[in-house]
Amino acid sequence: MSYDIGNIMLSFLLQLLFTVGVIVLFGFLISLCNKLFYSNFGSWGRAVCYVTGAIGTPIHECSHALFCLIFGHKIEEMRLFQIDDDDGTLGYVWHSYNRRNIYHIIGNFFIGIAPIIVITALLYLLALPLAPSMLDGIFVSIGGLDVASGFMNPLMVLWDVIKAIFSQVTSFKWWLFVIIGSFLCLHATLSGADIKSTLGGGGILIGALLITNLILGFFGGGVVSAFTNAILSFGICLASFLMLSLAISLVAVLFSFLIRLIFRR
Questions:
Q1: Quick one: angle between helices 152-165 and 132-143, nearest 10?
Q2: Using an 8 Å Cβ cutoff, are 236 and 154 in contact?
């Protein structure tokens, strides 16, 4: 049995793309949508940010705090919402941890991306009473995932998820869901401090993934392929769930463009 290091590294890169890559891509796209949303309000952008931030910012900061508790970090100071900060910071969570504790260091990654995770989860809970048919469509689409059948299947799954999200566009409850959800998604953007805090923990997770692939390589290419398919399935499911947050952010951007056109006349 030969040890195919080339195939192992290729599998590792593919796994990385469908895990960290998915989080980075959706985080970037959601952040871009949010920046466009507020910029379209011009001089009123800051005031609109305060209005949406009254709901979205406390949830954003509570997300960080929740994962601080999960990973054993000590919360030193926490501000859920403020409107008088000179640098525009609406809220923050200051936390400390043992820099020799690997669990604490890994926790930095999840604490950093916590708003994306928690807000996406809240959207699905919010959809239970307001858009249950949409949820059914999303879960049915994800249930058809089979990465072993080829690259087209995951693409079709993502396309079906998009169609499911907008399938209830004529429903009043769906629009109510989008309006409430936009207050959350508009503050799912990760700050520079959030991104910086993910680096150390993210590096350890990436290293652990690489070591896992190198070890599995001793058991043959079939084992590595099976592990890769499992990671890819997780990545597509993650992308499918995050698609809801991105879709709401896109609707919010379209609304802001409409407002911009109306007030420019």
A1: 180
A2: yes
Inter-residue contact 182 to 52 (CB < 8 Å): yes
Residue 139 lies in a domain: yes
In a domain, 21, yes or no: yes
- Say how far apart CA 230 and CA 148 lie, in whole Å: 10
pLDDT digits (tens, 9 = 90+) for 22-67: 999 999 999 999 999 999 988 888 889 899 989 999 999 999 999 9
At residue 82, the pLDDT reads 86
- 93 - beta bridge partners? 78
Residue 16 CA to residue 206 CA, distance in Å, equals 8
For residue 254, the one-letter residue type is L
In a domain, 265, yes or no: no
Residue 264 counted as domain residue: no
**∠ CA 75-79-80 to the nearest 5 degrees?**
110
Q: How many independent structural domains does the chain possess?
A: 1
pLDDT digits (tens, 9 = 90+) for 149-195: 878 888 999 999 999 999 999 999 999 999 999 999 999 888 877 88
Rounded CA-CA distance 33/31 in Å is: 5
Question: Where in the sequence is the domain holding 108, given as residue range(s)?
Answer: 5-259
> Whole-angstrom Cα distance, residue 52 to residue 186?
7
